[in-house]
């Protein structure tokens, strides 16, 4: 049991370093549930890091997928703390393996697809890399309501991923990735060259706000079913949603500086958001 607790502790360190918003929000959960969230987050983070930072991401992702296959068959593929913590989580909760596999599929998209033609393509990508996280967490957060909350979890994931896209435009550009739909850019006559020149013009703001409008609509959709979550999960989910949604207003307050500036919600702002919940 000591090695399981140690594995969860290592997963906690991963989320503490990489996502202060999620860590703060889900720290509100009861002890066993928040540890399970740390394990799921570490799975997602590991896949993401392979794609963004791996030396041979295609092969590394294939190897990780094979390890997950063996994990699902009942054997730990190695003694990495992720598999130890995740095994305990799978034993405690009725976890669905499909969103985990869809997440890997979504991350694989980043290895081959660098441009998105329309909003539909962006939403499909967002489902795979973000809505899947919500679906992974439902058996932990709301085991008796997982089916009823499926649509809400998908909407929240899409809202958060659209927010990521709008925050990370500059970072993504450095990796030659553009998630802003080319159709939307064409509609507002904002070119890829303009984007590469980091031009923040009325045209850029129109493109940005068009996607922000979609994100905010998905946040509203996700919040419609908030009362279906058990009380112990409701506040963490709402906090996570509001922390992320606040990033959009931070970008606006910073005059849409997304190319060479990291927009984030401060600890003080998060405290204020939680005080108003």
From TrEMBL:
<keyword id="KW-0808">Transferase</keyword>
<dbReference type="GO" id="GO:0004311">
    <property type="term" value="F:geranylgeranyl diphosphate synthase activity"/>
</dbReference>
<keyword id="KW-0125">Carotenoid biosynthesis</keyword>
<dbReference type="InterPro" id="IPR008949">
    <property type="entry name" value="Isoprenoid_synthase_dom_sf"/>
</dbReference>
<dbReference type="GO" id="GO:0051996">
    <property type="term" value="F:squalene synthase [NAD(P)H] activity"/>
</dbReference>
<protein>
    <submittedName>
        <fullName>Phytoene synthase</fullName>
    </submittedName>
</protein>
<dbReference type="InterPro" id="IPR002060">
    <property type="entry name" value="Squ/phyt_synthse"/>
</dbReference>
<dbReference type="InterPro" id="IPR019845">
    <property type="entry name" value="Squalene/phytoene_synthase_CS"/>
</dbReference>
<dbReference type="InterPro" id="IPR033904">
    <property type="entry name" value="Trans_IPPS_HH"/>
</dbReference>
<dbReference type="InterPro" id="IPR044843">
    <property type="entry name" value="Trans_IPPS_bact-type"/>
</dbReference>
<comment type="pathway">
    <text>Carotenoid biosynthesis.</text>
</comment>
<dbReference type="GO" id="GO:0016117">
    <property type="term" value="P:carotenoid biosynthetic process"/>
</dbReference>
<dbReference type="Pfam" id="PF00494">
    <property type="entry name" value="SQS_PSY"/>
</dbReference>
